[in-house]
Amino acid sequence: MSESAEVVPIRPSIRLDTDALTLTDIRLSHEGRNLLDGVIAEISSNGITTLIGPNGAGKSLLLRVIMDLVKPTSGVVEFGDGFEHPALVFQRPILLRRSVRANLNHALKLAKVPKADRSGRLAELLVAADLTRLAENPARALSGGEQQRLSIVRALASNPSLLLLDEPTASLDPSATKAIEDLIRNTSAAGVKIILVTHNRAQAKRLADDVLFLHQGKIAEHTLAEKFFQAPQSDAAKGYLAGDLLL
Amino acid sequence: MQDFFDAFQQAFALIASGDPELIGIVLLSLRVSLTALILACIIGFPIGALLAVSNFPGRRAIILFFNAAMGLPPVVVGLTLYLLFSQAGPLAVLELLYTPTAMIIAQIVLITPIIISLTRGTIAGLLAEHGETLRAMRATRPQMVMTLLREAHPALLTTAVVGLGRAFAEVGAVMIVGGNINHVTRVMTTSIALETSRGELAMALALGIILLIIALFTNAAVYALAPRSRELAHV
């Protein structure tokens, strides 16, 4: 069955937050297609926000716009007082052809962490990712889950206040997924705001404090996770949660 | 046929005896070609990497120029440098003609485009893989260049070997600007050409054998350095 629900952009229904990340009418067109079509959202500076929606909705693109890797055609991304700088973890970890330790050391150097502080910080990151025993191993020889944990803590090397995760558990087995989810929860508990793109509705349910539902380049719904999964408001979200194929 | 085997026998005897003239020619060849290679790498690696990671007007024209320059005819390079360094040339005051320095410059002109073009290709490939991640990590352009150059080091070693091969094999340019002067600018390739034309096959063969040994040794050295890179790569 297929369904094409019309999406009307809505204002966020969660509380207004002066520390928030504000997306104002973000539009991005490419070859006549509106990939992002007026995204409006106010994302609080704490907790875990999941960004969900069907394939091609513009989720990964929106992360890249927030990260300033892609310039929108129009619209503004404003970081509130609660954000210093963001970091991004991609779906497919791209690691340097060096050891686990050398990968983290490189990230700490880029993040301008003073040399004297690097070894302590590096040890913390290894512990956080549970990779201490693999520190000297070639990073590219790690399993998929280990590589993704490494890329998450590598992103944390710069002490970001916002961590953007683009489907970090795609194609991982349940135990690797659980390890990543634990790392995400711990990172959030440490005060880092998380915006997580996922296709996995169960994962969104497990992790999310609030949900941004993106469809056809627009925010179709932005609400608290519990409310979203119990009583979605938009037709598109209802269809998505019912397992309909949204076009 | 007897002459053929005699020539080989004499060639090996020359090598085994450590003939001072032979050793002098080999050492000068090594000095000229290795100096040229090191300087070409110092110039070529960063320029190649910058061409890969930068975008500016005229970049494509520069890339095309260096790609075309990989096939520069050595005699044309030699002739151009000869005209520049000769008594009537604009650089006569440097008094470089018929010196090893002129030969080094000729080899730099010949191998730098090779180093630049191969480095650019390698770094462009790595940029496609790592570019977005490095930009997300807020790497500056120089940091990106340094990271990718280090990431590319096994391929850059091969690039250097290609450059060295070109330098060692070069005859035309060094013959013109060096003059093939005994004990001053005579290197292995120019000496082989000279000795062959004089019918002194033993010396020519001895130098040829040493040239081959150097080529084999260089490749073996690169291969010996590679395992650590392969171990860390796991691609």
Write the layout of secondary structure elements.
The complex is a heterodimer of chains A (247) and B (235).
Chain A: E1 2-3, E2 21-30, E3 33-43, E4 48-52, H1 59-66, E5 74-79, E6 86-89, H2 100-110, H3 115-128, H4 144-156, E7 162-166, H5 174-189, E8 193-197, H6 201-207, E9 210-215, E10 218-224, H7 225-230, H8 235-241, E11 245-246
Parallel strand pairs in A: 1-11, 4-8, 4-9, 6-7, 7-8
Antiparallel strand pairs in A: 2-3, 2-5, 9-10
Helix pairs in contact in A: 2-3, 2-4, 4-5
Chain B: H1 2-17, H2 20-53, H3 59-69, H4 74-85, H5 100-136, H6 141-151, H7 153-169, H8 172-178, H9 188-198, H10 201-233
Helix pairs in contact in B: 1-10, 2-5, 2-6, 2-7, 3-5, 4-5, 4-8, 5-6, 5-7, 5-8, 7-10, 9-10
Uncertain ranges of chain B: none
Distance between the termini of chain B: 52 Å
CATH architecture of the domain at 1-85 and 160-170 and 191-247 in chain A: 3-Layer(aba) Sandwich
In order across it, which strands form the biggest sheet of chain A? 6-7-8-4-9-10
**Approximately how much beta-strand content do the residues of chain B carry?**
under 5%
User: Main beta sheet of chain A: strand number and arrangement?
Assistant: 6 strands, mixed
What is the CATH homologous superfamily assignment of chain B?
MetI-like
The structure class of chain B reads mainly alpha
What is the N-to-C order of secondary-structure elements of chain A (H for helix, E for strand)?
EEEEHEEHHHEHEHEEHHE
Cα-atom radius of gyration of chain A: 18 Å
Mean pLDDT of chain B: 91
- Give the structural class of chain A: alpha/beta
Number of helices of chain A: 8
Count of alpha and pi helical runs of chain B: 10
Order of helices and strands of chain B: HHHHHHHHHH
Task: Please report the total strand number of chain A as a whole number.
Answer: 11
The average pLDDT of chain A is: 89
What distance separates the N and C termini of chain A? 11 Å
